[in-house]
Amino acid sequence: MTTTKNIKNYTFPDSKPHYMILDGLRGVAALLVVLFHVFECFDWSPAPHGYLAVDFFFVLSGFVIGYAYDDRWKPAGETKRARLTMGGFFIRRLIRLHPMVVAGAVLGAVCFLLQGSVRWDGTPVGIGWVMLAMLLGMFMLPLYPGAHADVRGNGELFPLNGPNWSLFFEYIGNVLYALLLRRLPTRWLAMLTVVMACMLTAVALHDGYLGVGWSMADGGLWTGMVRMLFPYSMGMLMAREFRPCKVRHTFWLCSLVIVAVGCLPLLWGEMSPLANGLYDALCVIFVFPMLVWTGASELTTNATTTRVSTFLGNLSYPLYAVHYPLMYLFYAHIGFHGDLVPISKLADVWHVAIALPVACIVLGWLFFRYYDLPLRRLLSKTYIK
Questions:
Q1: CB 265 within 8 A of CB 46
Q2: 80 band by pLDDT with thresholds 50, 70 and 90
Q3: What is the Cα–Cα distance from 135 to 301, expressed in whole angstroms?
Q4: What span, in angstroms and rounded, lies between the C-alpha atoms of 160 and 123?
Q5: Helical ranges in the chain per DSSP H
Q6: Would the pLDDT of 1 be above 50?
Q7: For the range 147-155, what are the long-range contacts, defined as Cβ-Cβ under 8 Å and sequence gap of 24 or more?
Q8: How many CB atoms lie within 10 A of CB 153?
């Protein structure tokens, strides 16, 4: 039997052990996002709620940030590890996150050019605007709808790698954590979490779902902040109050719940927006925190669970960061320009639809093994004292 905290592939020499089960669950959620994006162009999807995996990421991020860093801000002599400075925290987060941000922007530009460099409506886009969009993406600078560098014409914050919107809000969450949230007494943090839960529910019921935040259109920045702040603050609150309970075999059970959440069919009919919005809110407010708490509680794992969790944990972030540019090639192949493709079309491209997630997994692993991990280790040795 092995402990649930994974000590492999650390970037920083003074890192706390990782919760292996949580790393594995992050990988399951990343695979669900890939499945959602492969089929979002069709009028049927096996994972219509797959976008909720992003909200699971936010809960998990808040928990991990609180677990990893809360005890590092205390004055020297009051913490067992070296005291963390504001600059040191931001350097660590940039080393952890930004190499894949850069890789995703570059890969997005390459794939966009390969698919013909055209917007959704077929309008050609000059290479200069593509390069500007890539540069903005590399520096995590969002675009407003209608900007010339909005090369896909879809109003995305990051048109060359759409999922970067969640990393943008992750960065904002990191800044808020360092400047404010870590300083809040637990009671105040709990009050903030309750307030944000109410706001999240209001957004979900108003919009009919929680797939918001990827664009500045229709108040997207505000709804994206709400979508990030509740799960992020909930995760930090759980890290402060976490007490493990005796749970066994949680990885497989929690994985099934994550998949079930993403694969539940959308509800149709007159009340469907209200019902789907309520479903999304309940999953984020109750189900995902329960999964994180349970996943952090398992004390031991067998060899199979250890191998699977380690592989999925290592794969999760690179897979999420680089999979979407491949969708540009797939969408161009099937002629998807914004209007949903009938499911009958899937019969003609089923082999591509099956091969695409496999290609994303292989690409994500190659980036992890030969780019992300070596670069993070090099940067850690250079900048982490």
A1: no
A2: low
A3: 43
A4: 16
A5: 20-39, 53-69, 86-114, 127-138, 164-179, 186-207, 220-241, 250-263, 272-282, 288-295, 303-322, 324-334, 346-367, 373-383
A6: no
A7: 151/112, 151/117, 151/119, 151/125, 152/112, 152/119, 152/120, 153/119, 153/120, 153/121, 153/123, 154/120, 154/215, 154/338, 155/215, 155/216, 155/217
A8: 18
Determine contact, residues 230/264, Cβ cutoff 8 Å: no
Would you place residue 7 in the very low, low, confident or very high pLDDT band (cuts 50, 70, 90)? very low
Q: How many residues comprise the chain?
A: 385
pLDDT tens digits, residue range 345-359?
888 999 999 999 999
In sequence order, the β-bridge partners of residue 5 are 19
pLDDT in tens, 9-60: 556 665 677 789 999 999 999 999 999 999 999 999 999 999 999 999 999 9
Q: DSSP per residue over 201-216, as a string?
A: HHHHHHHSSS---SBS
What residues have CB less than 8 Å from 97, skipping those under 6 apart? 167, 170, 171, 317
Question: Contact at 8 Å (CB) between 295 and 312?
Answer: no
Q: Give φ, ψ of 44 to 5 degrees.
A: -145, 145
Structure tokens at 67: 């677990």
In this prediction, residues 284-303 reach a mean pLDDT of: 90
| Interval 321-344 mean pLDDT | 91
Q: What letter represents residue 137's amino acid?
A: G
DSSP state of 323: S
Residue 38 contacts residue 327 (beta carbons within 8 Å): yes
Output phi, psi for 300, to 5 deg: -140, 155
Please state, in angstroms and rounded to a whole number, the distance separating the CA atoms of residues 247 and 267: 33
Query: What are the φ/ψ torsions at residue 318 (nearest 5 degrees)?
Result: -60, -40
- Return the structure tokens found at 373: 């991990």
**Residue 38 amino acid letter:** V
Q: Which of 82, 91, 22, 83 is nearest to 57 (CA)?
A: 22
Q: Report whether 255 contacts 261 (CB < 8 A).
A: no
Do 160 and 137 touch, CB atoms closer than 8 A? Answer: yes
Residue 385: the pLDDT is 72
The two structure tokens encoding residue 222: 């505000």
